[in-house]
Structure formats: C-alpha cells, structure tokens
C-alpha cells in the first residue's frame, strides 16, 4: 500500500435507485418517509425523495475498503452532509467517489473523499484515517 | 432547544446482538462486497472471530441512543425539523458477528446559529466485556421557524 500525497487511490461510480433506498431503510432501520415518499418529501420543501445521508456515507468509504482490503484498519471516518442526493424514480442517481491521499505519516494515511452528484459535491470534510500498522 | 442538555449522559441502551445475516444485509445495502463482510472463512483467515461489519454499521446501534435524545421530555427537539449535519466514527476495533453491544450517549455540544440549533452527541459503544469498540459522534441540526 505505497502511496503519496495527492495520489488517487480509488475511484468508483454508484447508481442509486429507489430500490437501493428501500433496501438501505430495511437494513439500517431508518424508515423516515422522505427516503421513499415523494409527497412527504415535497411537503417538507424537498424536490423529491432523497438518499439517506448515511447510505451515501456508507458506500463512499467502500472504494477505500477495497483498496486497503480490510476495513478493520480504519481508525476514524467522518463526513459532513452538505447537499442532498435526489433519487429520480426512473433514472435513479449517479454518485461518483474519488479517494485521494490527503496526508501520510509512518503510522497512518488519511484518505480524502470527493463525492459528487450532478456535478456538485454532496459530502464535506469526508475523511478516513487508516492505520499502516 | 434546552441548553441544559449540555453534558447530559443517558442510560446505556439494551444490549444489541450483532447477527451474521444482519451484517450481510447491511453490507449489501451499502455496496460492501469484501469477502470479510460475507464469508466467515475469509474473515477467520484474516484474524477475525466472524464476519466483519462495514464501517458505518455502528449507526444501527447509535440510532437507539439518538431516539433517547429526541424523546427526552425537556429537550425541546422537534424531530420533524431535524437534519443530520455531520457524522463521525472513531474505532478501537471493527464490529464482528456475535458482538453484543451497548451504547451510552452524552450530549457534548449545544449551539445556535442563525435561528437553527445544533446538538452534538457522542455515543460510546462497548462490547460484552465493557471494552470500547467505537464512538459514534453526530451533529443534528434543528431547523428554526422559517
């Protein structure tokens, strides 16, 4: 796992559909209806059904897990939720994750994630610290 | 929101027994395809007791603590106005199938910003032996009247 600062270590595109949201709702226990009912989403001023922020946080780290091969080496993982991912009932939503080395010491590496939907980032300060031990 | 919530520590949640099929179900939902998340033999070969939960799985255990916070009678949090602001997990070790976990929430920060309030909480998750597994830190934003 040799890398240098600024290097892109993984890049992956995920297509979310309404089915993905129902699956995540069941798996996580988050049954907030803004994630499966357009009428409820619109009644609170949203353009339509949104992906769970925790679903986006959940898959955004997977390219890093695939790169390191063992999620047990992750020391810390954080994100800020900055923009919603609106999931169209027919076309879904395409979300791209780029994982880049942000910092590096002998003991650990910090991976910075850029997570993009419709040409805008949806997560801020998305960082995973990984042990090199 | 009630500023006296600052520093409040809630009762530990009932123990949550992490099931193998729950880890597989959660893994499929977050597009986690590593054999460590699905195949006990692969997990054991990598030094784990059983299959490994994905990094964001602790939200399932933390969720019970956030429900306590939102239900606190004097908190003054209208859950229909709550938006998830940020989330962090600090790990001592990965969660594996067979773990029995309890979580204890402490309110670590309350602030107001432009009509909105923000509450930051830390849910400390420990195993059956009482050893630390992961701390889940959330900031919830409660939108003010528009």
Short description:
Chain A has 133 residues and is an alpha+beta fold. Chain A is 24% helix and 38% strand. The longest helix of chain B has 14 residues, at 58-71.
Descriptive terms for the model:
heterodimer, A: 133 residues, alpha+beta, Thiol Ester Dehydrase, Chain A, six-stranded antiparallel β-sheet, 6 strands, 24% helix, B: 146 residues
Task: Please identify the top-level CATH class of chain B.
Answer: Alpha Beta
Mean pLDDT of chain B: 94
CATH class of chain A: Alpha Beta
Low-confidence stretches of chain A: none
> Major sheet of chain B: order of its strands?
1-3-4-5-2
Distance between the termini of chain B: 16 Å
**What is the CATH architecture annotation of chain A?**
Roll
- Provide the number of structural domains of chain A: 1
Q: H/E order of the elements of chain A?
A: EHHHHEEEEE
The coarse overall form of chain A would be elongated
CATH domain topology of chain B? Thiol Ester Dehydrase, Chain A
Largest sheet of chain B: 5 strands, antiparallel
How would you describe the overall organization of this protein?
The complex is a heterodimer of chains A (133) and B (146). With 133 residues, chain A is an alpha+beta fold. Chain A has a single domain, classed as Hotdog Thioesterase (Thiol Ester Dehydrase, Chain A). Helix content of chain A is 24%, strand content 38%. Chain A is built from four helices and six strands, in the order βααααβββββ. The longest helix of chain A is centred in the N-terminal third of the chain and has 11 residues, at 18-28. Chain B is an alpha+beta fold and 146 residues long. Chain B has one domain (3-18, 55-142): Hotdog Thioesterase (Thiol Ester Dehydrase, Chain A). Chain B contains four helices and five strands, in the order βααααββββ. In chain B, 38% of the residues are buried. Classes of the chains: A alpha+beta (133), B alpha+beta (146). The A-B interface holds A 14, 20, 23-24, 26-30, 44, 53-55, 57-59, 61-62, 65-66, 69-72, 74-81, 125, 128 and B 22, 25-26, 28-34, 36-37, 46, 48, 52, 54-56, 59-60, 63, 80, 83-91, 93-94, 137.
């Amino acid at each position: 796992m040799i890398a240098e600062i600024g290097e892109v270590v993984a890049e992956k595109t995920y297509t979310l559909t309404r089915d993905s949201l129902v699956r995540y709702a069941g798996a996580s226990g988050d049954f907030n209806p803004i994630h499966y009912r357009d009428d409820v989403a619109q009644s609170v001023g949203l353009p339509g059904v949104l992906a769970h922020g925790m679903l986006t946080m959940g898959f955004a780290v997977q390219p890093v897990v695939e790169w390191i091969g063992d999620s047990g080496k992750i020391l810390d993982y954080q994100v800020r939720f900055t923009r919603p991912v609106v999931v169209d009932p027919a076309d879904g939503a395409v979300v791209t994750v780029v994982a880049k080395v942000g910092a590096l010491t002998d003991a650990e590496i910090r991976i910075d994630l850029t997570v993009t939907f419709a040409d805008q980032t949806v997560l801020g300060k998305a960082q995973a610290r990984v042990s090199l031990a | 929101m009630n500023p006296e919530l600052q520093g409040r520590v809630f009762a530990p949640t009932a123990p949550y027994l992490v099931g193998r099929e729950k880890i597989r179900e959660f893994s499929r939902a977050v597009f986690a395809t590593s054999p460590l998340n699905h195949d006990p033999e692969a997990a054991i070969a990598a030094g784990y007791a059983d299959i490994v939960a994905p990094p964001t799985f602790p939200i399932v255990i933390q969720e019970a603590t956030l429900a306590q916070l939102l239900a606190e009678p004097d908190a003054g949090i209208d859950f229909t106005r709550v938006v998830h602001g940020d989330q962090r997990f600090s790990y001592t070790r990965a969660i594996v199938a067979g773990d029995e976990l309890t979580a204890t929430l402490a309110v670590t920060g309350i602030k107001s910003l432009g009509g909105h309030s923000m509450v930051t909480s830390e849910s400390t998750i420990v195993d059956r032996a009482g050893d630390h597994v992961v701390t889940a830190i959330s900031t919830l934003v409660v939108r003010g009247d528009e």
